[in-house]
Amino acid sequence: MENMNTTNPSDAKARALLQEHFGFSEFRPGQEPVIRALLDGRSALAVFPTGGGKSLTYQLPALAFDGLTLVVSPLIALMKDQIDFLTGRGIAAARLDSSLTWDETKAIQDRMAAGTLKLLYVAPERFNNERFLGLLDRTKIALFAIDEAHCISEWGHNFRPDYLKLAEAARNLGAERVLALTATATPSVVRDIREAFGIPEEDAVVTGFYRPNLRLATTAAPPEKRDDLLLARLTKRPPGPTIVYVTLQKTAERVAAFLAENGLPAQAYHAGMVAEDRERVQDEWMASDRGIVVATIAFGMGIDKANVRYVYHYNLPKSLESYSQEIGRAGRDGAPSVVEMLACADDVPVLQNFAYGDTPTETALRAVLDDLLGRGPQFDVALYDLSTAHDIRQLVLKTVLTYLELMGVLKQGTPFYAGYEFRPAEGQTPESIAAQFPGEHGELVASLFRSAKKGRLWFSLNPDDAAAALGVERRRLVRVLEVLLERELAEVRVSDARMLFHRLRPEEDIPALAAELNRRFAARENAEMGRLQQVLDLVTHEGCQTNLLVGYFGEKREAPCGHCTFCATGRAAVLPPPRPLPPMPEGIAGEVTSLRRAHPEALREPRQTARFLCGLTSPALTRAKLSRHPLFGSLEERPFADVLAWVADLN
Description:
By secondary structure, the chain is of the alpha/beta class.
């Protein structure tokens, strides 16, 4: 534990807040220098292991600042848990997300305007909302905290294009200081985060990744023996809260059923379940001292359960970053815990296929470039429409647009909504609302109602068209609607989100741009393949596996850990070779060819067909309802490259 220098007034204040609001007398490793940097007005980076106390580094300073602490996190579960924790201690915290009602959203906005809200949690996508950005423009932001900050790195293991916009947003909003947080960052990713947010090297605090209470085990397991191995582990070891990670949703269902049939309290959890069932499974597991969840990686992020005794990887993790994050959910209470990987080379093709599925076809890249660059020097697009038109998933399309910004082709403006709907609050009429504003303001309100299309209850308009017709700026019209909402004179809702872009050069070499985008996606594929190989290298490493794992994140340890598989046995695991694949199902070639002729938009390109056969969705497949076809995913256990070559031979 660390002690702050209480001779410094800000340190003394921090210690008082720590005791008063959080009930602790000492700081955890790393928290003290991060909090001191923030209290001194500087930005900071905290790279702490899972369960290392990152949240306190913004929760506590938020209480000392005059202004709002804005916390950006992709994890709704984390938001909910932390808000419950904070409000239970009398700290004013809230979240804004799409699950809130209009009244709940309005109440939060009122608290922001009044300056009574200390912490606000939002997802990174919220910064594509012009009304939210307008609200922040009128808010003093004392601290801009970004969780999962490794997502900002193009070459990190979980690049999210929306994160690249956060650094610019922090600058545009005049945030007084920035805090970036992550549990998994290699030295190169740490450098990317620091450069993006302007964080001094001395204020990048990286604590150790070594967890002495975790027994890191790796066991080579042929696929046909994994069920029995897992069952043996779960029945012979003392019971305790357990997570079993798998790759596919159907594997989660099957393995959970197998364990339950053998008398174990196991349940499946994955993104394909309805929200109510996921919440029920999570709540039951959280309350249990012996529950078992068999889950895809959709489970665990943002969940604070200190006494997880076991984390098993039934399937290989996709990277050392993912592995470190997932095993980090075990033993947060410091008690001995086991993390074991049942390593099998047969898992490799399925994991590779996910990476390959993110790569657009070169035809699609050319088409989207022709589309975008044919729209003039300034244009706006709806991401859904663009995704559907060119058969590129929305997250991948965001990456394409981000690459075009990084390449100096486009610059994104403030996102906006092309559709607004509004209706007078109960007891109000358009005339009574306009009468509450003096002079020209009242006339503008009256004109707003007159220019809108009136439905049974709601008025609707395109703010650009209405602004042009009324001879005012769009932002003034939008502000009028916000004022009506703030004064509870009307309800307002938005639709048709649009992304605004400016071209930075008058001419572009589209074939060259397409080739460069293709190269970047190929490089990402190769990087993902390399990360998967690093997992296999960990399993077969002839030396301390714990030291190899923490060394990947830049921590140097000389002494062997004494509690990984190699240290315990003196031997590295030997992976059995993958099982030989059976021949292609008879008659499939003719069926695939017929299906491609029937659905040219979804299956014309060999890569589109290979995605379909490997069980990877795309907008065109969804629109054609082909994800329900018996052939969808029929070759998911085969290497994507082999399936792609086979399809190409059909042409």
